[in-house]
Amino acid sequence: MPDDTLIHDPRGGLPRLIAIMARLRDPETGCPWDIEQDFASIAPYTIEEAYEVADAIEHADWQELRGELGDLLLQVVFHAQIAQDRGLFDIEDVANAISDKMVARHPHVFGDESRDKSAEQQTRDWEEVKAAERVSQARTGTLDGVALGLPALLRAVKLQKRAARVGFDWPDSSHVLDKIREEVEELHEAAGHLSHDRIEDEFGDLLFVMANLARHMKICPESALRRANAKFTRRFERIEALLEDTGKTPGDSDLAEMDALWNRAKAEERQ
User: Into which EC class is this enzyme placed (predicted)?
Assistant: First the structure.
């Protein structure tokens, strides 16, 4: 029988988690579900856990954040164990790789460069280091290495940032607003007589330019949309509560009544 001392040690920390995952993936004594998983099957869970971390931060729920960070850490350990099982790398290689990267990208902390820099200058330096890394990895295209798996709005911003570094960018947000008006008109025209695919293309163009506006205004579009989602949820729940006070549900109401209650919910928030 294997020694389970570390696995059952409540203060075993990261080594305990690594040992647990190794046991779960053991082909003889592990969990059938865990054994069957691969990088692709686990990737959606990894993305989901990252969003749940963001959600805990959004709600300032620090106990929840501790748990969600653990769930995300489990994903890292899971991927590393799959890699180790295949003879690719292990969790120590993962930790060493990110440590090397952080040291290399912070010469003003770990090297000879001066720390007397603005945050903006440090960001430029960071991008220069990353660009050099891409060249060393034979990624010479401006847009090479922008992950396909990113949420679409975030990927749009990253693509635009890359293009902007080589001069492909509007000088200020006023030009972006002009482009938004143009794209809205094109979408309006497409909606009248073009195919669904063409309408979707035009809608995508509009979203892409909106992401560009967010970048120019130094707004994270994902964060802005999460806030809008939260606002909508909060106000619609208020509509439901006001309707419940009269013995009604949204299904018993109509748009005019709910719109009036929406405006009331907005006014209440501004008081």
Answer: hydrolase
Measured distance CA(172)–CA(165) in Å, rounded: 14
Burial of residue 176 (number of CB atoms within 10 Å: 0-12, 13-18, 19+)? buried
Give per-residue pLDDT as tens, 146-169.
888 788 898 999 999 999 988 999
Q: Which residues of 193-204 are buried (b: 16+ CB within 10 A; e: fewer)?
A: eeeeeebeebee
Question: Which overall architecture, per CATH, does domain 13-104 show?
Answer: Orthogonal Bundle (1.10)
Q: How many CB atoms lie within 10 A of CB 79?
A: 20
Q: Which residue type is seen at 80?
A: A
Please tell me the pTM assigned to this model.
Answer: 0.64
Tell me what the pLDDT averaged over the chain comes to.
91
Q: Give the number of other Cβ atoms within 10 Å of residue 169's Cβ.
A: 16
Question: What is the residue-wise DSSP string for 10-48?
Answer: TT-HHHHHHHHHHHHT-TTTS-HHHHH--HHHHHHHHHH
How does DSSP assign 51-109, residue by residue? HHHHHHHHTT-HHHHHHHHHHHHHHHHHHHHHHHHTTS--HHHHHHHHHHHHHHH-HHH
Q: What is the DSSP string of 137-197?
A: TT--STTTT--TTS-HHHHHHHHHHHHHHTT-S-SSHHHHHHHHHHHHHHHHHHHHHS-HH
Give tens-digit pLDDT for 45-95.
998 899 899 889 988 999 999 999 999 999 999 999 999 999 999 999 999
Instruction: Say if residues 153 and 207 touch (Cβ distance below 8 Å).
Output: yes
**Count of residues making up the chain:** 271
Domain ranges within the chain, ordered by starting residue: 13-104, 223-270
Backbone angles phi, psi at 208, to 5 degrees: -60, -40
